[in-house]
Amino acid sequence: MTTLTLRGVRKTFDGRVEVIRGIDMDIADGEFLVFIGPSGCGKTTLLRMIAGLEHITGGDISIGGERINDVPPSKRGVAMVFQSYALYPHMTVAENLGFALKLAGQSRQEVKAAVGRAAEILQITPLLDRKPKELSGGQRQRVAIGRTIVRKPRVFLFDEPLSNLDASLRVQMRIELSKLHAEIGNTMIYVTHDQVEAMTLGDRIAIFNAGKIEQIGPPMELYEQPGNQFVAGFLGSPRMNFIACTPGGATGDTLQLVAGEAGTVSWPGKLPTPAPSEVVLGIRPEHMTVTRVEQGLAARIDLVEHLGDTLIVHATLRGSDNTVSLRLPADHEGLSAGLDIGLSPQTERARLFDGDGQALAVGS
Ligand SMILES: Nc1ncnc2c1ncn2[C@@H]1O[C@H](COP(=O)(O)OP(=O)(O)OP(=O)(O)O)[C@@H](O)[C@H]1O
Ligand SMILES: [Mg+2]
Description:
binds adenosine-5'-triphosphate; elongated; alpha+beta; about 375 residues; CATH 2.40.50.140; 6-stranded mixed sheet; binds magnesium ion
């Protein structure tokens, strides 16, 4: 079993800044876990700590129940694929794939078998005799992944492995990676800045912020039930809209939320007691529609973007500098910059946050 366990893991560089500030995590055998978070929040550092390339300042890392804090990188059974990988330019694909095994003293037959198997999985068998400069970007990336497969690691760590590829190759490689995981079933951790990769590849996503995990869970759970405003704003593009509101009176089971001069939203539910004096309504761009200005929250269109399959409308709420965006069907007509519109949020899809950005448990 290759469960990976992190307990109170910390990292301070040069005794100064604490970059990893206490990570507790259990990654199941065969799980595909995605890390996302802003630049500089510590994703690469944590992967390097798991791989043994970076000393751990505090806490414990275990694989299959064995504490590996002091186990050297080569003995951990962990392999890392970096964003910028370097293939040996003077070696063929086959030699690149087999180099680490040869270095480890494996026989020619063993190396050949391992290389053949990896090439088959990654569908690069016809390329084995080529040199790296004769390969496309995606093919080179596959060779880089192949080099880690041949080592039969217990755990794969990927640090933005596709970020150097163009859009169509990324899509192709993303599908290949999913297939690879289904076929070899190893435990994998995958760092990305790409929303689609995060949502589609992972069994779970861990969202990092400043050296800590904000939330960890299945992609749709994080998307639909973010525990706080940071997570809500990080997943999704355009990001979730946040509208500051003051709770007004309640009529039966419906609460009125007043968004300043823009107007009032009816919320089908009750606030917890004591009720906060200010709340933030979180609503995704695809969960708002356009109505007449007197029927919804009043806003003025700043920009309309045609993306081919959808329309993104950017607008500013009346009486504030609160900007919002809407995702509408591509054939929606009659919208242009400068137009006053009403926004109609599907409140049953919305989320409410308190003044500290924590999601409110809203009763009904
Ligand atoms: N060797 C080092 N010495 C000192 N500080 C470091 C070192 N390596 C990384 N850091 C700092 O640690 C923090 C986390 O860096 P890290 O590379 O882990 O971020 P990241 O989440 O991978 O970011 P990105 O998304 O940009 O790749 C940053 O503030 C970085 O400057
Ligand atoms: Mg990084």
